[in-house]
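Q: Got a minute? One more chain.
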Amino acid sequence: MNTTQSELAALRAKHAEMGNQIASLEASINAKPITPWEPKGGEFFHRSQTGTVEKSDSDEGSRKNGCEYPTRKAAESALPYVTFFKRLCCLAAELNPSGKVGGNFYVFPPRHGDVSWKPYDWDVEGHNDRRDITCVFETHDAALKACEIMNRDGWKVPSL
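A: Always. Here it is, folded:
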């Protein structure tokens, strides 16, 4: 290949690269902004203090915090799960050395259909990367203590 052919090949490569850059810039100009999901809310909400479902006017704070639901049926069906997780967070705050919620350990319920497990046989698992929403315990000891309490008191996940 002579010098002219080399220069032509180099120019074609630059032209192709510039075409890709132009396409990328055009795509970013034409891209629609992504709006983060927010709960729609509704007329029914969970009253935290009493654990009841009530009808009320929509409020931005309760809507954004996931306390409002479009129907009473939706709110009532979510209430056991919300209550369970809030109680789990309270237990973690009481047992964690820092008094905060969050860590690398979580508890999990008995395996469904596993007859070798007792009806209430919570156990503990840990992750270095906090990949589970229920990683609310800071230490293995705190999570084990939670399991003792949950097993003693017969905690059950609402769907089980």
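A: The chain has three domains: 1-34, 36-70, 80-153.
Q: Perfect, thanks.
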